[in-house]
Amino acid sequence: MLAEVQNELANTTDAATNLNLIRTRAGLAATTAATQATLRTAIDLERRLELVGKGHRWFDLQRSGNAVPVMNAYFQSTGTLVTIDANDLLLPISQSQVNTDPSITQNPGY
Fold first, then answer.
1. pLDDT tens digits, residue range 22-57?
2. Distance of alpha carbon 47 from its chain centroid, rounded?
3. Among candidates 11, 20, 15, which has minimal Cα distance to 2?
4. Which of 58, 78, 24, 74 minimizes the C-alpha distance to 3?
5. Where do the RagB/SusD domain residues begin and end (predicted)?
6. Contact yes or no for 22/43 (Cβ under 8 A)
7. Residues 6+ apart with CB under 8 A from 10
8. Can you point out the beta strands (E) in the chain?
């Protein structure tokens, strides 16, 4: 995550250094990504590979704003007749919270 933060702050050299710490530990060659966009892609891929099965992918997709296009592409590739939009990423607000504050309205779709 440090590499991701550094990259988003335009510290691409530091981001690549931290990404390469992970790659070196895994016995992989250093990244060739040099721009902010290519480093963002490289860091995303590294997180997917390093954290597989740990439950981080969904939150990475949401944080990066890629959940809707990635999930729709997946559904299409598997022949699943489902599409989602931004409202499908929202969780319901607890009814007890809605009951205690009349200015709170429920998220769309709930």
1. 999 999 999 999 999 999 999 999 999 999 999 999
2. 9
3. 15
4. 24
5. 1-110
6. no
7. 36
8. none
